[in-house]
Specification:
- The complex is a heterodimer of chains A (about 110) and B (about 110).
- Chain A is mainly β.
- Chain A has no helices and ten strands.
- In chain A, strands 1, 3, 4, 8, 9 and 10 form a six-stranded mixed β-sheet that branches.
- Chain B has no helices and eleven strands.
- Chain B has strands at about 5, 10-15, 20-25, 30-40, 40-50, 55, 65-70, 75-80, 85-95, 105, 110.
- In chain B, strands 2, 4, 5, 6, 9, 10 and 11 form a seven-stranded mixed β-sheet that branches. In chain B, strands 1-3-8-7 form a four-stranded antiparallel β-sheet, with no helix packed on it.
- Classes of the chains: A mainly beta (about 110), B mainly beta (about 110).
Chain lengths: ~110, ~110
């Protein structure tokens, strides 16, 4: 597959453990955020979103936390599985329809 | 239904040449956004088209251009290619402009030699 991030920070977790991926955003006025997952050779895939009027949002096995005070987002993945191995990006809405993407974190799940 | 398709998937060009990449959105989607992805800069927004009009543009030189056809298919063009243009070019479609739920294609890997 294609390498999408040769210099990405990497998080290695054991299968079954919980994973926490962090992201700092830049614009305190941003009111909408998305987490994407990108597997090798594929485009980013939407995981979960959150608006700035929320602190937490839960999906299936995933939770996003938003701390507006320190401009920080985190993605928690419960019971991490080998299929979760990918690069994860946070994206903040910069303009009406323009997103600014973080640099990404590579998640390695060890069986 | 079929996802976003991009052609070609891989392309090798020489400095100074130009290139055209194609994106077919999901059926019914009328907004197409283009992104450049590199190891150094990550994912960067290029531009968005809706109803054959460019709605928003990122911070890229004028060598990067695009267009959208009446069937919502979109093309992007890069003229006078530079080595630094080597990247994965991704397009994403959504139902309409301002719709934040975007669906990405697999990308076109462009290598400039």
């Amino acid at each position: 597959g294609e390498s999408v991030g040769l210099h990405l920070p990497t998080l290695s977790v054991q299968e079954g453990d919980n994973s926490i991926i962090n992201c700092a955003y830049s614009n305190s006025a941003s009111d909408y955020f998305i987490w994407y997952k990108q597997e090798s050779g594929k485009g980013p895939q939407f995981i979960i979103d959150i608006r700035s009027n929320m602190d937490k949002r839960q999906g299936q096995r995933v939770t996003v936390l938003l701390n507006k005070t320190v401009k920080h987002l985190s993605l928690q993945i419960a019971a991490t599985q080998p299929g979760d191995s990918a690069v994860y990006f946070c994206a903040e809405l910069e303009d009406f329809n323009k997103f600014y993407f973080g640099s990404g974190t590579k998640l390695n799940v060890k069986p | 239904k079929a996802g976003v398709t991009q052609t070609p998937r891989y392309l090798i060009k020489t400095r100074g040449q130009q290139v055209t990449l194609s994106c077919s959105p999901i059926s019914g989607h009328r907004s197409v956004s283009w992104y450049q992805q590199t190891p150094g800069q990550g994912l960067q927004f290029l531009f968005e088209y809706f109803s054959e009009t460019q709605r928003n543009k990122g911070n890229f030189p004028g060598r990067f251009s695009g267009r959208q056809f009446s069937n919502s298919r979109s093309e992007m063009n890069v003229s006078t290619l530079e080595l630094g243009d080597s990247a994965l070019y991704l397009c994403a479609s959504s139902f309409r402009t301002g719709d934040h739920e975007q669906y990405f294609g697999p990308g076109t890997r462009l290598t400039v030699t």
